[in-house]
Amino acid sequence: MTSLDSATEPASKPAPKPARELPDVSQLVVGVLGGTGDQGRGLALRLARAGQQVIIGSRDAARAEAAAAGLGDGLGVRGADNATVARESDVVIVAVPWDGHAATLSALREELAGKIVVDCVNPLGFDKQGAYALKPEEGSAAQQAAALLPDSRVTAAFHHLSAVLLQDESVERIDTDVMVLGEERAATDVVQALAERIPGMRGVFAGRLRNAHQVEALVANLISVNRRYKAHAGLRITDV
After folding, report:
1. In whole angstroms, what is the distance from residue 28 CA to residue 10 CA?
2. CA–CA separation, 4 vs 75, rounded Å?
3. For residue 157, is it within any domain?
4. Segment Disordered: which positions (predicted)?
5. Which of the residues 14, 61, 118, 188 has an alpha carbon 20 to 30 A from that of 107?
6. What is the rounded distance in angstroms from the CA atom of residue 203 to the CA atom of residue 74?
7. What pTM, to 2 d.p., does this model score?
8. In a domain, 3, yes or no
9. CA-to-CA distance for 75 and 225, rounded, in angstroms?
């Protein structure tokens, strides 16, 4: 049996390392592809309320503009077509439905070059027994994104957030950890910092993109938890 720690554990636990200082991301423009859906709209709302500049994207610019207006004039959220959002953003969150994931990213390869791309798509199927994880040919949605966007800095995060809580403006804090994966430390640091702008959230580095499948798949378990307990469950990582 393999423990959660390394196979060879030290005799005594070393003193904890000081937390690494995360970058200032307050001036970055965040685009949300799929920002008219529940998850994307909720993330846009929370980041905008935290003071982030946010642009909502959709294939239909008018629909994106309507979604942005629906969040309220005081937040300054804009709406635009996906290509415009990709060009004008520093960080782009991918929150599109799984069945449109590959086509959306393939069409935006040029516009997303050089950008930090945050994939939060969960490939899931549903049947009479509930939700279950799908495994893409590339291994995960995040790995598919990396394959389709070789010139982008692809990360994975924001998978386990309740869209209901994100959109509920009466909820001041969302107490949960955000697991962040990626190949480049500077990029994952930016995503962690964005997560921590939302009250109650903490960004936790959780490995490279090859480990994204089980993070995406865990959403199926959370859906089962929520259905059984009538809840909006999240995650907390202990001892870090």
Report:
1. 41
2. 42
3. yes
4. 1-21
5. 188
6. 27
7. 0.92
8. no
9. 33
Q: 184: domain CATH number?
A: 3.40.50.720
> Is 86 domain-assigned?
yes
User: For residue 71, is pLDDT > 80?
Assistant: yes
Query: How many CB atoms are closer than 10 A to CB 37?
Result: 17
Contacts of 221 (CB under 8 A, 6+ apart): none
The token duo for 146 is 């990396």
Domain count, the chain: 1
- Kindly calculate the radius of gyration of the chain based on its CA atoms and give it in whole angstroms: 18
Q: Quick: pLDDT tens for 82-136.
A: 999 999 999 999 999 999 999 999 999 999 999 999 999 999 999 999 999 999 9
Q: For residues 168-177, b (16+ Cβ closer than 10 Å) or e, as one string?
A: eeebeebebb
* Cβ proximity of 167 and 45 under 8 Å: yes
Please report whether residue 11 resides in a domain.
no
Q: Amino acid letter at 226?
A: N
3-state secondary structure of 33: strand
The residue segments making up the domain with residue 86 are: 29-229
Residue 32 near residue 93, CB atoms below 8 Å: yes
User: Is residue 56 within 8 Å of residue 85, measured between CB atoms?
Assistant: yes
Helix or strand run (H / E) with residue 59: none
Rounded Cα gap, residues 137 and 47, in angstroms: 32
